[in-house]
Specification:
single chain; alpha/beta; Rossmann fold; L-2-Hydroxyisocaproate Dehydrogenase, Chain A, domain 2; 2 domains; 6-stranded mixed β-sheet; 8 strands; about 15% strand; binds (2S)-2-hydroxybutanedioic acid; peroxisome; oxidoreductase
């Protein structure tokens, strides 16, 4: 039977069959047999809050859901959207470790909306180079909170005839980093991004499913277990997806000096968010 928000989803014309489940009594039925689990659950920000302010409530929600994943579909790939992503992904990893089913390739923090926003804003500023925003790419690395969101504007494709620099560059980077807050403020207490985030989640899930079905060459930015920055167990960068999740972490490519400083400035915050998640999961 389709219930709740499932009824809304069931009207979308795809080949998917929609079923709705609700509450802990139905979590076993919901998860058994899943190959891909998307976790967007949690409370949203209100104006004035950071994503980290959600930790107290969302950390426990993610821990408990991932505990059920470990029990009922331990081999599933996880797409984690619940904030603060910089901490909830490490929480998920620790829970899977405790249950002896951790596969670092299978836990992906969804940072796709950062990439979508970067593409949208870049295309608006450079219409002469980017005729079609869907053909544009902007890698975004680091994490998914404030200044840990680092767009690599030196790597925009198609190549820009006038690169971003000076005040235009700093204003654009700041806008991309604060884009989630822009939505939170605009919704004035009614939550954070839902529609753009739903499309971002769909893009990421579709990429995972295509790669799981054997399609090659699918690349997405995601916050994953990585050795790109030696001090950080998790970091967002380009990843090649495969049948089992992250086939290869591709890293940041050739960054310019401004981007290198941004990455190095983000290390302390990312490390503390990762440690906070790991400590919580093991407490
Ligand atoms: C976003 O980037 O829109 C989400 O992470 C939600 C938020 O709190 O900003």
């Amino acid at each position: 039977m389709v219930t709740g928000v499932g009824v809304d989803l069931s009207h979308i014309s795809t080949i998917s069959e929609v079923k709705g489940f609700c509450g802990n009594d139905q979590i076993e039925e919901a998860l058994t047999g899943c190959d891909l689990v998307i976790i967007p659950a949690g409370i949203p920000r209100k104006p004035g809050m950071t994503r980290d302010d959600l930790f107290k409530i969302n950390a426990g929600i993610v821990r408990d859901l991932v505990q059920s994943v470990a029990k009922y579909c331990p081999n599933a790939i996880l797409n984690i959207i619940s904030n603060p992503v910089n901490s909830t992904v490490p929480i998920a990893a620790e829970v899977m470790k405790k249950n002896d089913c951790y596969d670092p390739k299978k836990i992906l923090g969804v940072t796709t909306l950062d990439v979508m926003r970067a593409k949208t804003f870049v295309a608006a500023l450079r219409p002469e180079d980017i005729k079609d925003v869907t053909m544009c790419d902007v890698p975004v690395v680091g994490g998914h909170a404030g200044t840990t969101i680092i767009p690599l504007l030196s790597q925009v494709t198609p190549k820009l005839s006038k690169p971003f620099e000076g005040e235009e560059l700093t204003a654009l980077v700041t806008r991309i980093q604060n884009a989630g807050t822009e939505v939170v403020d605009a919704k004035a207490g009614a939550g954070s991004a839902t529609l753009s985030m739903a499309l971002a989640a769909e893009n990421m899930a579709t990429s995972c499913l295509r790669a799981m079905s054997g399609e090659k060459g699918i690349v997405e930015c995601a916050y994953v277990a990585s050795e790109v920055i030696p001090e950080l167990a998790f970091f967002a960068s380009k990843c090649e997806l495969g049948e089992n999740g992250v086939e290869k972490v591709l890293g940041c490519g050739e960054m310019d000096s401004y981007e290198k400083v941004q990455v190095s400035n983000a290390v302390a915050e990312l490390k503390s968010s990762i440690d906070k998640g790991v400590e919580f999961a093991n407490a």
